[in-house]
Design goal:
globular, 4-stranded antiparallel beta sheet, H-NOX domain, alpha+beta, 189 residues
């Protein structure tokens, strides 16, 4: 992963649990400061170590922290630091979700040895959507759940995650999300 993830996770923890909690997490993790340099590749183990220490320090499940971090990533990182890139890849939840791979292709030149996950959005015959996430990393499906929720908020779209089917192998992790996607009814009483 890149230092951008670690530095954003640091800000998420600070905003959610305070500076003292972060200082304890950082100290106990032993993660080196180079792992927080935004455009520098950091060993994945540094991110997992920070997550584990954060779960211990905050008494939260790691999966819950990852999901909340996914929501934070959209609301505080993606839509603020990468607003122009996001806008160019969709003006609705469905359009953006269909173009995430193109977004990753566009930013791949900014990061050395970039290995982004891949996503696939398909319309289900029942009127639902299948959103498939594939990564060489394992354990990040809850982060993707948070991304989905954050994107739903950002695009003011009602999205319900009905089911998540996750499989791990030596090649990484593959998760299929079954989504019910609709417009928010702002005129409802």
């Amino acid at each position: 992963m890149y230092g951008l993830i670690n530095s954003s996770f640091r800000e998420f923890i600070r905003e959610s649990f305070g500076d003292d909690a972060w200082m304890d997490i950082e100290k106990k993790s032993g993660v080196q400061q180079e792992s927080f340099l935004t455009m520098r590749q950091a060993d994945d183990s540094s991110t997992y170590e920070l997550l584990g220490r954060a779960a211990e320090e905050t008494s939260q499940q790691a999966e819950k922290l990852l999901e909340d971090f996914g929501v934070y990533w959209i609301s505080k990182v993606a839509t603020q630091q990468y607003a122009r890139v996001m806008r160019s890849h969709g003006e609705s939840f469905l359009e953006f979700a269909s173009n995430i791979n193109k977004l990753h292709d566009q930013i791949s030149g900014s990061f050395l040895s970039y290995q982004p996950p891949s996503f696939d959005l398909d319309h289900d015959p029942r009127g639902l959507y299948s959103f498939t996430y594939q990564s060489h990393r394992v354990g990040l499906t809850p982060f993707v759940s948070g991304l989905i929720k954050g994107l739903a908020e950002h695009f003011d779209t009602k999205v319900q995650i009905i089911d998540v089917d996750t499989h791990q192998s030596e090649r990484g992790e593959r998760s299929a999300f079954l989504l019910d996607i609709g417009s928010r009814d702002t005129n409802a009483t």
